[in-house]
């Protein structure tokens, strides 16, 4: 009898990983696999446009302002519509919400309602599109809380601790799909020759400490006194505590957080005099990234409490974010509480 050698991990595709994860958990219905598979398909379609953006006239600005006041870029709009269309007919979602749309995105009447809720930032870091800097998509999945019918704001405005899955896609030097459904954080890299996401970063764990801080220091004068004291502390020479830290800031949230996840350290967007709650959006930026980083052994805070414990009150609400290595988030909270 021929003995087939065991499959090396390089054949661990995203689809196989998700379906094996479903089988490992009794009661899983396979709906989850379908949602994540559709998301990965949408991501490939967005990637195709991102990679050729420099070649066709897809760069530049549209004149439509989105709810967050950013100038919407044509790729932003393409990504938003592509994700919605990939997800609106599977029968697994009862409602969606996106950074680019002020109101909830309902499932078309001709399609069945499902038991999950999807929130997404279709193309984060879009201000970097024209400079060919890494950008990304972020997604967050909840189970609905209402019994049936079209999803409502009650289904959407849940604390991040109730997410059943979250993840992001990186459109950079290579394309990555990083997700967590409660059993570890796993990264997949697209092999464009076969169009498959292959497992490249199994069970990502963030170091407990780091020596990189990631923030827009251009806002220094607008920060509160505790944040300034914290950053000044990171810059002081002290070999015993590994200072000074290095500053790395791409200005693309997904890229900055992905580096923090792999290398350790801290990413933060604190309140400032222009943005009293910071710039980042709780529901489709802070929550999914906090879920990922906590699942990898790190921490995420609004400066005073756990991000995932925040009860949201509005779809596009902003919240300060301090996220990364457990010890680094603990340190900044000591400064912000006045204990240092
Ligand atoms: P600033 C992009 O819209 C974004 O939300 C994040 O991707 C990025 O980290 C941040 O804004 C950059 O903001 O104020 O530092 O330019």
Q: What is the gyration radius calculated from CA atoms? A: 20 Å
Number of helices: 8
Mean pLDDT: 92
- By DSSP, the count of extended strands is 15
Q: CA-to-CA gap between the ends?
A: 69 Å
Under CATH, the topology of the largest domain can be stated as Fructose-1,6-Bisphosphatase, Chain A, domain 1
Secondary-structure element order, as H and E? HHEEHEEEEHEEEEEHEHEHEEH
The CATH top-level class label of the largest domain: Alpha Beta
Helical percentage? 25-40%
Bound ions, cofactors and other small molecules, one mention each: 6-O-phosphono-alpha-D-fructofuranose
Model regions low in confidence, pLDDT < 50 over at least 5 residues: none
**Strand order, sheet with most strands:** 4-3-5-6-7-8-9-10
- How would you characterize the largest beta sheet? 8 strands, mixed
Strand content: 15-25%
Outline type? globular
CATH architecture of the largest domain: 2-Layer Sandwich
- Secondary-structure-based class equals alpha+beta
Integer count of domains: 2
